[in-house]
Design a protein that fits this description.
Bound molecules: zinc ion
Distance between the termini: 60 Å
Number of helices: 11
Strand order of the largest sheet: 1-2-3-4
Length: 321
């Protein structure tokens, strides 16, 4: 018996998008398509000229999962002055979009200016809907609860009678207010039919998890230092991309003479190489691995002006590899 071609439902359309098919099969031609269908373990691509091709679904599912949970670069979700996510309430955090690091001068964009204005004020908003509408109105970022919200519905307490049977507590689920995550939540039963055990995720979840792990490894390293002062330290400076350029510039100096050592005891890390935002996670991981505590240059008074005064210093050495 021949298996029937089934049109894609909404969840399948999300998974088997043209972009994801192309990610899985680089030779995929996404023009002249008349329809996409599911059949057994395949995706059938029908063309306007009457021909069709079959693609196995597994690599496309992997591409969907990989793309949905991709890790954006370090500066993607830092607020003004390299600030990380800040806790709001109910186990939720405010995650700013990295407007300040988009390009030279992007700190003057309306959304970036609004971030600076709002950075410390979200704690004054008690209502989640208000927080989300403010984040959305200025395109500031997202409300995210990677460990699930600890929200208590007041009605559950105030409206409950003594004889009411308490409902089984629901396990807190991760949450992100972004469109991608919300769409997956909406389509979850269908997504799980296609990908058993699937749980919603997004690039913000991935970034947050990486950032949290980075902070905790860095704290552990600092705590292991005598008097919580690092002998081995690096200081980094990031200049966002010039207008029209794809990448910015990440500059790093290091010392083995203590985090407060005068500037003359610092050296440029691999001055012959050019680093940008895409290298940041890897470099920071390597620094910590080698016992060098990374600091934003603004955090160390002794070197905070170094990147203006010694942009081309000499005698590079390598503390990390
Ligand atoms: Zn998200």
């Amino acid at each position: 018996m021949e298996t029937q071609l089934r049109p894609l439902d909404e969840a399948q359309s999300l998974i088997y998008s043209r972009a994801n098919i192309r990610r899985a099969f680089t030779e995929f031609d996404d023009t002249d398509i008349s329809g996409l269908f599911r059949k057994d373990d395949c995706l059938v691509v029908c063309r306007t000229d009457g021909t069709s091709q079959e693609y196995p679904v597994r690599p496309i599912v992997d591409a969907f999962k990989g793309f949905t949970s991709r890790l954006p670069h370090f500066f993607s979700y830092l607020g003004p002055n390299f600030r990380g996510p800040s806790i709001w309430r109910n186990n939720c955090y405010i995650l700013f979009k990295g407007w300040h690091y988009q390009s030279q001068g992007s700190a003057l964009l309306t959304s970036a200016v609004a971030q600076s204005r709002w950075a410390n004020k979200f704690s004054m908003l008690h209502d989640e809907a208000k927080v989300k509408s403010t984040l959305g109105a200025f395109d500031l970022g997202y409300l995210i609860a990677p460990d699930g919200k600890t929200e208590v519905n007041p009605k559950d307490i105030l409206g409950a009678g003594l004889n009411d049977t308490p409902e089984t507590p629901v396990e807190p689920q991760p949450y992100c207010s972004c469109g991608s995550f919300q769409r997956q939540v909406q389509l979850l039963p269908q997504l799980q039919q296609e990908i058993p055990g699937y749980q919603p995720t997004c690039k913000h979840m991935t970034w947050f998890a990486k950032y949290r792990s980075h902070l905790s490894q860095r704290s552990e390293l600092i705590e292991s230092c005598r008097g919580n002062m690092a002998d081995n330290a690096t200081a980094w400076y990031y200049a966002p991309p010039e207008i029209g350029q794809p990448h910015g510039r990440l500059s790093i100096i290091f010392t083995k003479h203590g985090q407060n050592a005068p500037l003359k005891y610092w050296r440029v890390y691999k001055s012959q190489e050019r680093f940008d935002e895409t290298h940041a996670w890897g470099l920071f991981d390597a620094m910590i691995e080698q016992g060098f505590v990374p600091f934003p240059h603004t955090a160390l008074l002794s070197v905070s002006n170094a990147f203006k005064t010694c942009s081309q210093p000499s005698s590079p050495q390598s503390p990390v590899s």
